[in-house]
Design brief:
This protein has 329 residues and is mainly alpha-helical. Helices cover 54% and strands 7% of the residues. The strands form two sheets. Strands 1-2-3 form a three-stranded parallel beta sheet.
Length: 329
């Protein structure tokens, strides 16, 4: 039996951090052994909000592919490709845009949220409004059976399902399956300051950070603000360090919780213990990505090969699409 198809991507907008890894990439690595996976670098999507600043786009693209490979994505198991290298995405985006109702785009949660909160950028553009149609093209062109998402992303996938349904109805052919969500329970890491881990908050631990940088960030993490002295009873549930222990040091969590509440372990000692555990995970990835980045030609070859592989599949779908639309001669 052929494997079910999965599609997902991420934008090359800067260094991948631990929140990104545990929120998505860890799951991608696991999925590639069970599914026919397509993971892509969404550089056209990066332009929807970053069209005016593309100076580092190519650098970020290579860096992101290095991150993919360093965490365990395997080009022999998954199709790893660059969105802009598969022009069929743009063709399908254009055709889907012809029949996607404006109201569907305007109700997109991300569109409304970013329009309200990104006042420093001019994102009132056709490209940003239409990005759900591009996202639908990304998914539908590979006839994906599943898209790995969290519950907060379900409305975005539903737009893709509606776009597929509408296309099939208008042209009277079942060209596209309606992709289903593959709900994933991701590990959640806060930022080093206790807020959501985000580049915009400057509170991330990136895969590109050196071991010394990681150590400094861990040792400066926010802990229980009510705990003044080492032997004061702590409240681990409000401590950022404790939240990290639950991901990196699961077997010791009960002991750490008890010691913190009993005042028998200080915050500095707790941070040192965490720093050692993070280093065990982070340092090998850091070293591998650095080795990969030393050979940019090899990274480019992987991107080209993966994009060529994706293009064959995308073109096959586009032949069906053009036939359904009755466009061309």
């Amino acid at each position: 039996m052929s494997k079910k198809i999965i599609l997902s991507g991420t934008r090359p907008t800067g260094n991948i951090h631990l929140g990104n890894y545990f929120g998505a990439l860890e799951n991608w690595v696991r999925l590639q052994d069970e599914y026919d996976c397509h993971f892509f670098i969404a550089d056209w999507h990066a332009l929807t909000t970053g069209y005016a600043d593309t100076e580092k786009l190519k650098e970020n693209t290579l860096s992101l592919m290095a991150d993919f490979l360093a965490v365990g994505l395997d080009p022999d198991k998954s199709t790893l490709f660059l969105q802009s290298s598969v022009l069929e995405h743009a063709e399908l985006f254009l055709l889907l845009g012809m029949n996607t109702p404006l109201s569907w785009l305007e109700r997109c949660p991300t569109y409304k949220d970013l329009m309200a909160n990104m006042g420093e950028k001019d994102i009132a553009t056709y490209g940003f409004l239409g990005y759900p149609a591009l996202q639908a093209a990304d998914i539908l062109i590979y006839k994906a059976d599943f898209v790995p998402v969290g519950e907060d992303q379900l409305p975005h996938l539903e737009i893709t399902r509606e776009v597929a349904r509408r296309f099939n109805y208008i042209y009277g052919k079942e060209v596209f399956p309606e992709p289903m969500p593959l709900l994933t329970k991701a590990k959640v890491l806060p930022g080093t300051d206790g807020r959501k881990m985000s580049k915009s908050y400057n509170n991330t631990i990136a895969l590109a950070d050196t071991p010394d940088e990681v150590k400094k960030k861990v040792m400066s993490m926010i802990t229980d603000p009510a705990r003044i002295r080492k032997d004061d009873p702590g409240h681990p549930d409000v401590c950022t360090v404790y939240a990290f222990h639950k991901v990196f040091n699961e077997e010791m969590v009960p002991e750490i919780e008890s010691s913190c509440k009993g005042g028998s372990i200080g915050c500095v000692a707790c941070k040192r213990l965490l720093q050692e555990k993070i280093a065990e995970f982070h340092t090998p990835i850091f070293e591998k990505r650095n080795t990969l980045l030393e050979n940019e030609d090899h990274l480019k070859q992987i991107i080209v090969a993966g994009s060529d592989k994706a293009r064959i599949k995308a073109e096959k779908t586009m032949q069906e699409v053009r036939s359904a639309v009755r466009i061309g001669v």
